Amino acid sequence: MNRLVFTSFCICLLGGSVFAQPDTTHPSFSIQERVRDIYNSSRDCVVRVKATRKDSTEDKTNRVLKMGSGFFVSKDGHILTTGLLRNADQIWIEHDNAFFLAQLIGHDSLCNVSMLKVMDTEKEFPFLSVSDRAEEVGPGSVLVGLTCALEFKVAPTFGLFQSEEISFGTSLFPTKMIRSSVPLGPGEIGAPLFDLHGRFVGIAHAALTDLGSSFILPADACLRIRDGLLLSGQVDYGWFGVTVSRKLNEQHAFDIIVEGTVDGSPASKSSLKKGDCIKKIGSVEVQDRGDLAHAAFFAKPGTVVPFLVHRDDKSVSVPIKVEKRSIVMKEEESQIAEVDGAVPGDESENPSSENNP
Q1: Of 47, 119, 189, 338, which residue is least crowded by CB atoms under 10 Å?
Q2: Which of 3-12, 87-96, 123-132, 265-274 has the lowest mean pLDDT?
Q3: Domain carrying residue 291
């Protein structure tokens, strides 16, 4: 039997399929192993979050049920999640085939992030380490998510870090968000994302279902929120109180120009002038209005932040003492071009019958 005939004979025996050993040197094999490693090492930190609320009308009572993902951030059972049902009358988590009642410790309305804590248990839980994001993680990096879709088990998903964005449509984000190709469906918002080294990258914040992608709140923002909610149940953000406009420059790009300041604001007490071109706030390069929101997000009240501006063909540093920003703003203030923040994400709720859990 010659070699050609022998090969054909083998194919017939295998039902028309040729099986080969995997090439363990191929990059795709390495990614597969890393995804498995991340799943095996971190899946026990991920939980399904459920919350219910009774909504009553004159002739009917419905129970609203909302599900999402979350993850432990302490051994004592503290959990971070996003998009929690507002005004819930009962919250619980599902973890390791068990159910635990949870209480709301604090909620950050700016980023729509909540902290929960397991009630009435002395059990210690595995948890994720939340820290500043790794500098080398950027566009093109592979991201791995561990989610609780619907009623399914914790499972991995993955995609690419695509870009950093500060706005969506006409709405500014509170800080720069990671746009990714990680697809997210019902129950997966609030899940943790990792890089291929297993380092925490951020929390799933919103799904872009038409694009098969998502927005992720980065790790450094999660760290700021976690610390604030743990310490006091709220996060104190900075406020500058400067209004700006865009002006086309000679390079056909936009400069961010000071239009004025809010009365009584930190900016009004500084030497900032109308017509100043803002180039940098602290370590944040300013190229659009969203960069001001991003700078204010990480500016801590009581600290002094330098504004580097271009004035009369000179670079001038203007120190501004940051004050605490009020999340609940007056209607006229919310119309200001630079509000040091963004409108929180919308909530989607699923009404269910009265006898559902």
Answers
A1: 119
A2: 3-12
A3: 238-335
Residue by residue, DSSP assigns 55-113 as: EE-SS-EEEEEEEEEEEE-STT-EEEEESPPTT-SEEEEEETTEEEEEEEEEEETTTTE
Q: Which two tokens stand for residue 10?
A: 């083998």
Secondary structure element (H or E) that encloses residue 6, with its range: helix 3-13
* Token pair in block for residue 7: 């090969």
Residue-level pLDDT at 18: 41
d(CA 107, CA 228): 10
Q: Which of 77, 92, 69 is nearest to 125 (CA)?
A: 77
Q: Dump the DSSP string for 166-200.
A: EEETTEEEEEEEEEE-----TT-TT-EEE-TT--E
Same domain, 185 and 100: no
Lowest mean pLDDT among 29-38, 223-232, 331-340: 331-340
Residue 96 within a domain: yes
In a domain, 1, yes or no: no
Question: CA nearest 281: which of 354, 334, 340?
Answer: 340
Q: Which of 232, 266, 294 is the last residue of a domain?
A: 232
| Residues 123-139 pLDDT 10s | 899 999 888 777 788 99
In degrees and rounded to multiples of 5, residue 94 shows phi and psi of -115, 125
pLDDT digits (tens, 9 = 90+) for 222-246: 999 999 999 988 999 999 999 998 8
pTM: 0.80
Other residues' Cβ atoms within 10 Å of the Cβ of residue 201: 24
